Amino acid sequence: MQEKLYFYYTNDLHSYFENWSRVAGYLKEEKERKTAEGNSCWLIDIGDHVDRVNPIAEAFMGKANVSLMNDVGYDLATIGNNEGITLAHDDLHHLYDDANFQVVCANMQSLTGTEPNWLQPTVEIKSVNGVRIGIIGLTAPFNAFYELLDWHISIPLQALEEHITKLKESTDVIILLSHLGITEDQEIARRFDDIDIIIGGHTHHLLRTGEMINNTIITAAGKHCTFVGEVILTWDHSLQKLVNKEAYTKDTTHMAKDLHTEQTLIELTEKADKILGETVVHLDNPVEIKWFRHTHVMQKLTDTLREWTKADVAMLNAGVLLDQLPAGNITYKDIHRICPHPINPCVVELKGDELLEVVRASFTKELTELKLKGFGFRGEVIGRMIYSGLKVDTFYREDGHEYVEQVTWNGEALDQNKSYTVATADTFTFGRLLPEVAKSKTKKYFLPEFLRDLLAQTLRNDFV
């Protein structure tokens, strides 16, 4: 006898609820249909379901996301970095208290001595005909952030080595829920023959029909749930082994919306508006936002960043503020609207020559006009860099490009051998946007505060 095992999954929704009612309707329907047919079917999420860019996620600190997953009927989930490092320790510790699904993550531990009740390193489930399935979850080890929030993420490969042998002894099939990214997933598939399926996420890769490496099939469904994943395993009971592994992704954009979910989202939006509706400050005059020009509010925000972090210098890109603020009462919702990014303040150490190179690079069109997606940035373009503690003199050449002529600190030219502490957005510590910042050997992140918390402080102190 052969038995088919069905797994439907989502990854990296990032609270993009515009797609959620379609996803919810599809998953509910598939689970109901498969169950009615007598088949085994599970719904799984691979992390980054929560993203505080959305007012609902912000207002409820992710718990509304969990409620929405409960409504759909999820069975299993692992956590992503957006659950892990954008919530204060207590908020994450209790995020899944009311979850009707199991949360599995083998490389996450609390540094407070008290583990969340919901956290399990592995889970074992059974099909209707007794096939034993072992589930293990892993998340990306961003310990520079996690440990500031009293969590530790152990090395994924070590966690696998610790648990895979036990799962092999007690289960027939092993599935890894991986919020590690495509490169890590491929390496794990090469090194661990006992893993049958890796359902992935984090790097927003889309594998339409999966990728086979050795004995393992890897799959992932992009981001924002534009696609939903499906894994079908065929177990032969007479041979006592898997005889087929399939992975697909389905485009959700044409699917019908689930009306119950639509109504729930409307209600959550109304509740979120009330929660975020507290007045932060009253503005007598509107606050102007310009992405490619120096503005008063960006200067004051950058000054606040320097003073708050006690750095020598601060720099922030004007693109972090997305829209104007009108005169009148300004609420937390307004502040979230114009600064929705899950971006933390950060201080790095740079030598004078490195800082000078950063300043020069920041005035190039390649950076200021860059349409960035990722690294916590949820805006449109990087925009003009604003400085505090530095005086930057520039000029325009005939080609229309702006160039740095002179940079001074405390009235003197930068000392190329002196170390300066530079406060900025943590965005620039990743990737190659500003290589000198990313490569700095000294980085201090400030958590759980976001830039919008400093914006609220700036408006209270400087705009009343």
TrEMBL record:
Residues 8-205 form the Calcineurin-like phosphoesterase domain. Pfam families: 5_nucleotid_C (PF02872), Metallophos (PF00149). GO terms for biological process: nucleotide catabolic process. Residues 289-427 form the 5'-Nucleotidase C-terminal domain. It comes from the Bacteria. One of its GO terms (molecular function) is nucleotide binding. SUPFAM superfamilies: 5'-nucleotidase (syn. UDP-sugar hydrolase), C-terminal domain, Metallo-dependent phosphatases. Keywords: Hydrolase, Nucleotide-binding, Signal. Belongs to the 5'-nucleotidase family. This is 2',3'-cyclic-nucleotide 2'-phosphodiesterase/5'-or 3'-nucleotidase, 5'-nucleotidase family.
